[in-house]
Amino acid sequence: MKRLIKPATWTAVVALALVLVGTVAARRRTPLASAAPPAPEVSVLTVVPETVAARYEYVGQAAASRSVEVRSQVTGVIVARPYAEGTDVAKGTLLFRIDPTTYEAAYRSAQARLANADRTLARLKPLLAARAVAQKDVDDAQQAFDQARAAVDQTKKDYDDTFVRAEISGRAGRAQLELGARVTGSGDLLTTVEQVDPIYVNFSPSDEDLLRLRRDIADGRLLMPPAPRALAVQVTLADGSLLPAAGELNFADLALQPATGTLQLRAQLKNPQHVLLPGQFVRVRLLGLKRPSAILIPQRTVQQGLTGAFVYVVGDSDKVAARNVAATSWDGGSWLIEQGLQVGAGVIVARPYAEGTDVAKGTLLFRIDPTTYEAAYRSAQARLANADRTLARLKPLLAARAVAQKDVDDAQQAFDQARAAVDQTKKDYDDTFVRAEISGRAGRAQLELGARVTGSGDLLTTVEQVDPIYVNFSPSDEDLLRLRRDIADGRLLMPPAPRALAVQVTLADGSLLPAAGELNFADLALQPATGTLQLRAQLKNPQHVLLPGQFVRVRLLGLKRPSAILIPQRTVQQGLTGAFVYVVGDSDKVAARNVAATSWDGGSWLIEQGLQVGDRVIVDGVQKVAPGQPARPVAYRPAVDSAATAAQDSTLIAPPAVPLRIRSRP
Fold it and tell me: What is the pLDDT of residues 45-82, one digit of tens each?
């Protein structure tokens, strides 16, 4: 009979077997676990510097390089429109024909009067030599001839103006007036001609981009193309394709746009196939900028972690370490590393000026068509010459009592009026040469070649002087009252008279303008809308680092606060009742003291109320103390800063806290 094994016995046997098997397996694995795995093989790139093209890209919009409104300078009915709308036309192409009947008749009549005056003058000159006529008759004939010639010039211009031609080559737009419509004058727009080859592309980098660009150039981190070459640009179209030909930067605006904080730049590009049309949006890349000693690493080497971008590097002992980096921009398939890696680490008829350039006072900016003014000037000269001859002839006759005094007086009046007319017409003629009234930077031309100037109401361009430059700022009414009260009470000292108050300007990127300036204007009254007083400082700006419209921070220099109490920033705590500090009393007991901390000075708070000279303030270990707790004084050894200067000779306080004895700062 077989013996049956009880279930409890089976359980014990199975448990014992599992324990034995686990022990054997553990013994077999022990030698393998103690052996270190082999070092993985990795691909390592040794960092070397190289000069690469700097990448600056912006969104731009295309615009016609020249846009001229076609207007008639004469009135009349349109009798012909030879051009086809929306087609290219050459300069001088006939666009509209105004009914010439009236102007042609006036021109022929003026020619007839000129011919008659010429014949009269030719007939009288020999008679004068034979003393058969008086000198006055010849002078009158000469005046009539000169006036007739000026009238011919004017009527010929009016007749020629009935042929309305294109002032520039370009694409002619839609006709605004049809055949048979009446043109009432230059106020009626006939059409527009736009030149799109070359074409302009406008784009606007931000204030921060400009500051960074200039600082990189000044520090040698960015190289400009050799002078006098202009900065080249490349345009990428909306579908990702490149415009075949690169262009160049040809204009920078005088000031930033206040609404956007950007500076408008303009590039000019060839556009023979009219691929670009005005209004299209494109991407603009600046070419020619080089970044020397740049560090490039493949894109896949840069990882993203909780602290930002990092890479793995292999040290001298072939140990792997993570290194935080500042990967700023792309160059092909690589990242440009600004920080974190070092070399060797593993891993109008004429517009002579150029827009946006500096011009000297008196530089010719625009030339207005002088035909009418030149004719008027010549006619006035002819009248003056005739009046002069008449007066010269009558004066001897008056002495001989051959003429009356009234005749001489009338001749003198005619001479004076003629001379005034010459002065006025000469001024009008000279005003066709539009020159810069000051030295400075000339802005964008508001009217193109061929556009009509209707008078002084038409802005042509702006010239702005930015060296020196003004900075306007506006403290509030409360700031002014506090400032004056502190000065009156002796809590604030002004610089010695007659020195002006100096100012220091901080740019948008935190850097300082190299030269300090001075306050040179304070307004008479506060602005009612804002309750502020406008102040103005003047600063030197030879490199044009500051441009009109930039926002900056202005700090007044030279104001001194006597007997000021400064304590390190970390000593001031915030509680339910406001700011407070821990002080050590005479019995070396800790107490909380409410303070009024009003402003910063370096790394310290300026204390207006709550502390007195001689008070002992706990600097270090404020988290370890509580009111009423005893403390043992030890010496406070601050770093060299503004607070340290004020407390350099302090003795004090103890573990667990380090106090600062308050001293008056002169």
Answer: 777 777 777 778 899 999 999 889 999 989 999 999 99
Pair 570, 653 in one domain:
yes
Give the pairing of strands 535-539 and 469-473: antiparallel
Instruction: Assign 348 a pLDDT band (cuts: 50, 70, 90).
Output: low
How many structural domains compose the chain? 4
For 70, 226, 227, the CA distances from 288, given in Å and listed in that order, are 39, 9, 11
DSSP 500-548: PPEEEEE-TTSPBPSS-EEEEEE-SS-BTTTTB--EEEEE--TT--S-T
User: Coil, helix or strand for 456?
Assistant: coil
Torsions phi, psi of 540, nearest 5?
Answer: -70, 140
Q: Give residue-wise pLDDT tens across range 503-529.
A: 889 988 888 888 888 888 888 888 888
pLDDT tens-digit readout, 128-151: 888 888 888 888 899 999 999 999
Residue 409 lies in a domain: yes
Helix (H, G, I), strand (E, B) or coil at 242: strand
- Integer Rg of the chain from CA: 43
Assess whether 516 and 572 both reside in one domain. no
Q: Decide if 302 is inside a domain.
A: no
* Same domain assignment for residues 532 and 580: no
CA distances from 262 to 3, 398, 547, 663 (A): 101, 75, 11, 48
How crowded is residue 633: how many other Cβ atoms within 10 Å of its Cβ?
17
Q: Are residues 417 and 501 in the same domain?
A: no
State what percent of residues in the chain have pLDDT above 90: 20
Domain endpoint, select from 381, 415, 431? 431
CA dihedral 117, 121, 123, 127 (to 10 degrees): 150
574 shares a domain with 531: no
Residues 575 and 495 in one domain: no
DSSP bridge pairs for 493: 560
Choose one of 494, 526, 557: the last residue of a domain.
Answer: 557
* Strands 76-80 vs 182-183: parallel, antiparallel or unpaired: antiparallel
- What token pair was written down for 195? 């030149």
Q: Report d(CA 171, CA 363) in Å as an integer.
A: 32
What pLDDT, in 10s, does the model give residues 531-584?
A: 888 889 999 988 888 888 889 999 888 888 888 888 888 888 888 889 999 998
- List the one residue out of 254, 237, 171 whose CA is nearest residue 201: 237
- Which pair of structure tokens corresponds to residue 620? 């270090």
98 phi and psi angles, rounded to 5 deg: -90, 140
**Contact status, residue 66 vs residue 195, Cβ threshold 8 Å:** yes
The reported pTM is 0.58
**Helix residue spans in 191-326 (DSSP H):** 207-218
Q: Which of 503, 442, 550, 554 is nearest to 211 (CA)?
A: 550
Q: Cα 370–253–516 angle (5° rounding)?
A: 120
Length of the chain: 666
- 135 domain-assigned: yes
How far is Cα 500 from Cα 105, in angstroms, rounded to an integer? 72
Exposed e or buried b per residue across 537-553, where buried means at least 16 C-beta atoms within 10 angstroms of its C-beta: bbbebeeebbbebbebe
Can you give the CATH number for the domain in which 387 is found? 1.10.287.470
In a domain, 391, yes or no: yes
The parent domain of residue 110 ranges over 103-161
Residue 619 and residue 537 share a domain: no
Q: What strands, in cross-sheet order, belong to the sheet with 440-442?
A: 358-359, 440-442, 463-464
Looking at the fold, whether 497 and 571 belong to one and the same domain comes out as: no
